[in-house]
Every structure is written in C-alpha cells, then in structure tokens.
Amino acid sequence: MRVRLRELALLFLRLGATAFGGPAAHIALMRDEVVHRRGWMTDEQFLDLLGASNLIPGPSSTEMAIHIGHRRAGWRGLVVAGTCFIVPAALLTCALAWAYVRFGELPEVGWLLYGVKPVVIAIVVQAIVALAPAAARTPLLWALGAVVAVAAALGGNEFVVLLGAGGATVALAAARRRAGGPMVSFALVPTLATIAVAAPSVVPQFGMSALFWVFVKIGSVLFGSGYVLLAFLRTELVDRLGWLGEAQLFDAIAIGQVTPGPLFTTATFVGYLLGGTAGALVATAGIFLPAFVFVALSAPVLPRLRSSWIASAFLDGVNVASLALMAVVTIELASAAIVDVPTSLLALASASLLLRYHVNSTWLILGGGLLGWLIRSFA
Q: Which residue has the higher pLDDT, 240 or 62?
C-alpha cells in the first residue's frame, strides 16, 4: 500500500505541475499514464471512471484523479491522488496572485492582461462550439438551452436554473418512459425562467466562513467544463456579492488559463485577492471539497450510477444549461475585453487558430500577453 500511495503521489504531483491544456488534455494524459504506461486499469475501466466523473458536479479532471486514486489504493489513495493533483497548481496560482497584488497596477502588467483577455474570450467560444453538439443533441435540449439563456440574461439565479433544467429533463424522460416511446413536450420548460428570476438570494457580509461556503456551493453544483466557472464566479462574486470587480474576475480566469493543473485553482487566485494567503487556502478547500465527497459517495455505487436513466436525464439538462450560461457570460464579458481594433483582431485570430488548427490554448494565452506588451512598447 505504501508503494502504491507513493506512486500515486509522484504521478499526480508531476501531472499537477505540468498538465496544461484544460480538462480534456488532463484526462488524455491520465489515460496514457495509468492505462498504457503503468497498466493499472483497462480502457474499459478508465471509461467507467470517466462516465462517473461526468455524472457528478465538479472539475472532471480532478475527479478523474480522485477516482484513479480510489481504484488504485482505496480511501487513502483517493485523498493522495486528488490532493497531489491540486496542490502544485494552487501553489503556483497563489504565487501569481501575490505578484498580481504587488505589481498588478503597473502599466506593463496592465498591457499584458490587455492582450490576454481577448484570447480568453476566444478560448471560451471554442469550448462552447466544441461542447454544443454533445450538450444540445435534440430540439428539446436546444429549446431548453434557449430558455436558460433568457433566464440568465434576465438575472436568474444560475443554481436554480441548473437544478430546474435537470429536473425538467428528468420529468420529461419519466413521461417518455411511461408513454413507451419518444415524446417532445415543452410544457415544463417555460417555468424555468420564472423560477430562476424569482429565486431569492441573501447577500452575506464578507468573511472567511462566507468565502468558504460560497466556493463550496459553486463546487457542489457546477457541471460541465471548467469554463462554466466564469458564469458562476461572475454571478456570485461580481453581481450578487460585489466582492470582486469584473476586471479582477477576468484576470483570475486568465491566471487559471496559464497555470497547469485544474482550472478551478482560479478560486485560489480569487481567495488571495479577497483574503490573502488564508483566503486562498479557504477558497481552494471550499471549491474542491465537494469533488472528494462526491467521488467518495459515488465510487461504491459506480455501476448503478452510470446506468441510471435518471442520472443520465439529469445530466442532459444541466449540461445544456451550463452551456447556455457560458454563452450569456461570454457575450457580457466580451464587451469588457474587446475594446478596440487590436483586441478585436486578436480575439478573431485566436478563435480561428483554436477552431481550425486546435492550437494549445496555453500558447495563445502567452502569445496574447506578449502582444500586449509589444503594443505597449511601441505605442
């Protein structure tokens, strides 16, 4: 057992420190390491774990690391693998947050971020385009996504929207099963906008406890790509609580893009901005804690969870709702990122490179920062 735990620690420390490119790239690297190089499991077993990760909220690549650790070394492996995957990225992000607080107001850094922000918009657009065919596979799901987008644009609570969308698809799937065949009904969909807009929300005062529970809530309900984090952070921290400015949110997402490991370490950056080192620790623990809990609860019942029609239907709803939230937030944030001709050209060029040539997003982020610095130098 000690040998297995040491192997897990070394593998996931290395991946956490070097795995760039987002969740899909992380999962591909994990498959290469644990299936091909080490033979810890078969492709079929790996896919079972991936399917389970997609059925629960949270960062999918981190949950894959946790699942692999549990499969390899039980409960201790679960903790070791997940923690070792998170810690390198969190430490690097915390260091960058310190540098941002110390130097972030300097013109040179401002122009670097000026070049990075349009690239971030292009990356999110590329993610939306890639996810759309899988998330909105039917006319009903497209309609559900449109209603969610309207609800979000009207100020609807994103947590209620996600749960409502999942509940609607489960109800429709149940009705379809009772009817014994395909059935398209839009009766439940229009209620989502009303529920979401009417949902009350309490604004707590800032403190470490409040910061922790805000990130626990986000980590507990966030389905889909890590880019959906944009929507949740903006709604919670910028619009509802007013703890963060929109420019700071953009900078946090950009830092998350240029660091390896989970994109959710954006929470580390935000926590440092709000509460220093203690805030970084609290926010990181809060957003990742639900992933450990959900994997621990789902791992023993993995076969039944993966084959459940209820879980599958619920996931259909939350996935398309997540995509709609991403689209709405991207449109809103683009107005702050694309402010002149150079940023417009940079966003278009980045989107073209991503969509047509699948260029690694990390290189685009670094290139955007370099172009921002060059523009500043020759302005």
A: 62
Q: What is the C-alpha separation between 112 and 257, in angstroms, rounded?
A: 14
Q: Are 162 and 221 in contact (CB under 8 A)?
A: yes
| 339 backbone dihedrals φ, ψ, rounded to 5° | -115, -10
Determine which helix (DSSP H) or strand (DSSP E) holds 177, and give its type and residue range. helix 158-179
Question: Would 184 be classed as within a structural domain?
Answer: yes
Reported as a pLDDT band with limits 50, 70 and 90, residue 339 is confident
Instruction: Give me the number of domains the chain comprises.
Output: 1
Contact in structure between 154 and 197 (CB atoms under 8 Å) = yes
For residue 58, being part of any structural domain is answered with: no
Mean residue pLDDT across the chain: 82
For 57, residues 6+ apart whose C-beta sits below 8 A from its C-beta are 219, 220, 221, 222, 223, 290, 294
Cα separation, 314 vs 273, in Å, equals: 35
CB-CB contact of 337 with 121 (8 Å): yes
Question: Is residue 233 assigned to a domain?
Answer: yes
Per-residue pLDDT of 140-184, as tens digits, reads 899 998 998 888 888 777 667 878 888 898 888 888 888 765 444
- The tokens for 196 are 């979401």
Domain residues for the domain of 222 are 106-378
350 in any annotated domain: yes
pLDDT in tens, 301-319: 766 655 778 877 887 887 7
